Amino acid sequence: MTDLRETLQNVFGLNEFRPAQREVIEDVLGGKDVLCVMPTGAGKSLCYQLPATELSGLAIVVSPLISLMADQVQQLRDEGLTAEMLNSALDADEQRRVLRELEAGFNGLLYVAPERFFASSFQNVMARVSGQIKLFAVDEAHCISQWGHDFRPEYSQLGQIRQRLGNPTTIALTATATEDVRADIVRRLGLREPTIVVTGFDRPNLRYESRAVSGGKKKDEALVELLKKEAGGGIVYCATRKNVESVTELLSDRLRGRKVFAYHAGMTHDARTASQEGWMESTNGIAVATNAFGMGINKPDTRWVVHYNMPGTLEAYYQEAGRGGRDGLPARCVMLFSYQDRYTQEFFIDKIGEERNGDARGAADAKVIEEIKKRARAKLELMLKYGGSRICRRQMILDYFGDESEVVDCHCDICRRDEDGMVATGPAPVLPDEVVMLVRQLLSGVARLHGKFGVGAVAELLTGADNERMRRWELDRLSVHGLLRAHAVKRVVAMLHRVLEAGLARQRDPEGTKFMPVIELTAAGVAVMKGEAMPPVSLADLVPRAGSRESGTNPRSMRTNPRARAEAEFVENDSPEVRERFERLRSCRARLAKVKAIPPYCICHDSTLKLIASSAPGTMAALEQIKGMGPYKVKTYGKMLLEAIHSDGSRLESQLAPDPVDDYS
Ligand code: ADP
Ligand code: MG
Hints:
Mean pLDDT: 85
Strand content: 5-15%
Shape: globular
Number of strands: 15
Number of helices: 29
Strand order of the largest sheet: 3-4-2-5-6-1-7
Bound molecules: adenosine-5'-diphosphate, magnesium ion
Largest sheet: 7 strands, parallel
Oligomer: single chain
């Protein structure tokens, strides 16, 4: 094997391999199947082009993007490589010429569209030359999966085709494959114990932020204030055409002197092109667009990307936000996040089956559509989790894509908040030893199951459950079985979710089909378990509350943790009636928050709810006397809260019609 770096420099004119390129290439050259997941622009092509030059013989590259093939082939030829293509854009003579070349023992890269394998002329030639095929590369491999966003039926035969070609070494490449899609690609292509490489999703210069704002006017104000501070050019993404129009109007009106360009699929072709070009040429222009905007648009100095609406998946968010800072300089990616956006996305999900009629998926059966919807909902939950995350957003994105790169020097709002000391009012909170111990015990339970079981099994293991599952897998013989015997299973499940949220563990769905995620430690979790690092302070209140089954009051943790203290006091001193009232008030607040599309604490804090629960005011005037309840709050929420105090609150729902939803065109 020649020195790969030499080939990289001499043939491709590039200096260094990018992360993982070399490993992928070495595996491919060693005859191993590889699934390569890297974002757009990361340099996937090199991962098959370089091996193709090293292996003498035929390298077939399957790509659905006929329009890009000619460019790719030309580029390779410019670099002095041998490359041909076969697709419907070629005239008949050209096609015949390429087929003749193939028969004559073509040695180089052949780009084909997947449907080419259905043409008998091509099939015949392939049958004769299959012995010479050294590499089979499937670009945009997510097209093979029903669960991908771009399923193409012509891709679904590629597994069989590969077999007919004699199972050549295969590399599948894609930018957007979640675990389930990855599993699907491996299975459908029949890859043999493939190396799966996921990398390049880290964009250190992007500063991810998410802000919970209520919809409507508040969001508009937040957007205007934000953009006043951003001198450079950028994009405001909206979920609907209607929002594009209203936001364009808002910004044109409020940000005088800035050019605002609207863009959505409902505009005429000319108007869209004019918008796009105007924005590209401007230095500080604002594009206001739906997700129709962006394909093939490259403005490296995009300094910010704001999402006026939350997208439906983190893939979509990542891709859209990722249009910022392509020049490597800092760029801000802010998501304005309101609960209303959830309904918008749910509405889109509900429509999934309808809009697919007539497209490539054709009369997909109802079961498939149900499954797609189910997955879309699960993805939406993760998107919401990102929005409300208390852990590093960059880390969350990397975890989502399965990229194990280490996050260093992060500038996301969560990481910066700690840096700036914005949360550290007063002395830095000290984690009680009990919490540190408890976290380590939880992590050791996770570690012992080696990523083969889910949260429930870990909780059963730690609480020492004596059941069929424990016996069948002999988990009752592990030393950690019963380590947290004093706690209820449910409680341990809840604690494990906190540990996940804190980034010490992550969930994966290895089967990709069942939605039964397993839990495993992250690098941070391993460090904490081994005692090399402290758990994050966000876990300070993990210690069980007093009065519960699990343990007595822990004076030390109470001292250091006001939230635990307040809850303990409340639980200890109050009667069951008060506690019940509190629970009713809490669910009333949750419903109000949902309807108003604001976070619950904006209605009132727990401490206020507790005061209301214990004094049980009977009138609006009495309610207003309570600390934390101003006249505005009493006016807005008083009636419902009083009802919740004195009844079971079940009448509330009928009184509160949700705000009318947007137009979703
Ligand atoms: P992808 O298919 O992953 O979207 P491409 O393969 O089209 O990305 O590569 C994107 C760009 O990155 C190309 O211009 C390519 O020349 C460049 N590139 C790829 N690998 C390297 C490298 N090791 N060093 C510098 N540039 C690279
Ligand atoms: Mg590519």
